[in-house]
Amino acid sequence: MPSIVLDPIGRILATNFHFDRLPVQREAGSADFLIGYLQDDDRSVFSALQLTSLSSKAETHPLELQFVTDDGSPLWMMAHVKAMTANTVPSANLLVQFCDITQIKKRELDLSDRESRWKDALVSSSTGVWDYRQDLGTWYYSNEWRAIRGLAPDDPLPPTTEEWLEFVHPDDRERVVLCVERQKAGDPDYMTFEYRERHKDGHWVWIECRGACVDWDEEGAPRRIIGTDVDITSRKLAEEKIAHMSRRLKLALEVSHIGVFETDFDAGTSDWDDGMMTLFGIKGSQRMQIGGIWEQMLHPEDAERVFSKVDHHVANLLPFSDEYRVTLEDGSIRYIRSRTLPFVDQDGHRKMIGANWDVTADLALHRELERAKTLAEARNAELEAAKARIEHIAMHDYLTDLPNRRYLDEKLNSFTEAASTTTGGLAVLHIDLDRFKEINDTLGHSAGDMMLKHAAKVLKANTRVGDFVARIGGDEFVFLARFEGSQRELAQLADRIISELRKPVSYDGHECRFGASIGIACELGPELDARQLLLNADIALYHAKNRGRNRHEFFSRDSHRHMVDTRRLSDEILRALENDEFVPHYQFQFNARSLAIAGAEALARWKHPRQGLLTPDRFLSVAEELGVMPQIDALILEKALADFEKWRALGLSVPKISVNVSTRRLHDPQLRKKLGTLTFDPGTLSFELLESIFLDEYDQQAMENLDHLRKLGVDLEIDDFGTGHASIVSLLRLNPKSLKIDRQLVRDVTQSTEQRKLVRSIIDIGRSLNIGVTAEGVETPEHVRILAALGCDVLQGFGLARPMAFSKTADFIAGETWRRPFS
How many Cβ atoms are within 10 Å of 387's Cβ, its own excluded? Predict the structure, then answer.
């Protein structure tokens, strides 16, 4: 054993033979000291050990020291240091004995290096390590094992297998339990298995678990199992993506009946899929060789061309397409289309991959289409002629042979497009035939057709070069004329057309007379809008008809504004009906002798949200034109009957209530059904009919409705009597309950003897026919006195009561203020 003796300061006093043979190198200048033989890192450590040994006078713990050798290789010694004694008396010298541990140290360092490399490899590969001691029932998990599951090094783990299984995917649990048990049992068939485990953030992680037994007990049972876990989620996703693409490709190939092949020219083989086998009618799983079956099936007329094309493109690695014929085993000929890609693989083999599909049916269809094309070309001349005729029919009116609305639209577009490049203008005359409907209804459609042809002939005769006439439907025509700025010329043209159309036309022994109303709109300049001109002419036609027909009117901004206002008012009326804005106001009627209340007339009022309360003169004409007066009448009637019941409930005496009825409502076939839903006592409800619109213009439907009203106990009154044109015969036919003398006749009875005589005559007529008489427009006490003296039954007017809302009627009735001028 190498040994030396040191003095208290570390100088070498003596060495033995074994120490002298050590291949150590001493540092220059420190040959007499032991620290001169040591590595720098160990010198201070040995000095500290030396002092400890001197102070304790006892043997210290051994110390590993590395010496500097001659060749630079490491020499590790285990040093044992103790104080020496002389004749049993401790001295200051130290005995140092060495044991060579170089081989042991090398093995430790090598093991440490291997462990470090293994650990680094595991960390860099994100491989988690686990260690199960079955004999101790303990588990070890590396940080990488935890990281795979999103766990931090200090995160707790499930304490039992059952709790851990809760994190395993439900579909994998049963298999995982089996695999774990078989791994614990050392079964080599279960060294590797895959499963899904829930990550800390909630998603599933695919894990590949590898484990094997590394230690067995005396009886050969596994005692220690070590393994690794690897996150293979990305691999699984890639596999699923590849499988998905493969399924889609397989389906696409099956649906399209495409066969795929790969040929290796250097190996002389060709790999065909099932689609290729089916395509070429080959059964079984034959191995395909170059120069074999496929070449034999090629049609002789195509073989040389196909071989040459393949050789050229494969030699130059150029993709290509081809089409060729093959003869199947049953003798049938099929047409094959191919798409091919030559390439060189990683082994340097020249290969070709391609797809083939059967185009026999396509080619047959192509030939059929070619035949059909030839046939179509043969008929082209005939179709061209028919096309011209069809185009004419499509663009012209079948009856008059004038251009139709479609042709007019194209013409208007061309005028608008050309306006910016021309200096002239355009005039649009919208023509509507007057009394055409009467001729058509009385003499039949043949007469109407003849009148339309005659009108077309007149319009054509008045055209000049560049003018255009079209029939746009029914009895309406549009005349497009050049306009140079003179409205006088347009007026003369319109008057000439009207004059000629008013001339009588003979048809089947009848002399037919009709006329025309014309709306005119014209404009000059590059901003000309032909379609807007047509709209303006339509507005002008509307005013021409409203002003008496058989005339022409030019479009003006005022007339347009009036139409816009009318349309806006129409929209507001419709909205008012939806929002229930029409309400009744009541003007009471009085017994001419006692001045007791004889009834109340319900008058329509519109509670406009912005303009306040509006009287009928603000909306009646538009509502009539809009066709909603029957709805307004019905609303007023329903509300009036409801208010009538409220008067009764309050104990107020109002004998009856009267409402106005429009002509359209009186002609309504559903009037009976609608009235059947209302509740009222006979004699308490009266309908007022305007004399000017009914008495001499009645029909069967209206008379049936009137008869039904009488059966329901509804009284009939003639309103505004004396200002219309009703005859005594019509009055007898209607047989009303009463009639109301118009206020224009009542107004001057206080001053005019003639007016009093006229009113007295009307009263006498009423009495002779047993018809009650009501006087409207009663304004003064003198009116009351005179009308009562003349024999009038009922009085109504502002002098007795103005129209009022229902909420004011109770106080009015209770206060009897109308009597004060007579008290």
Answer: 11
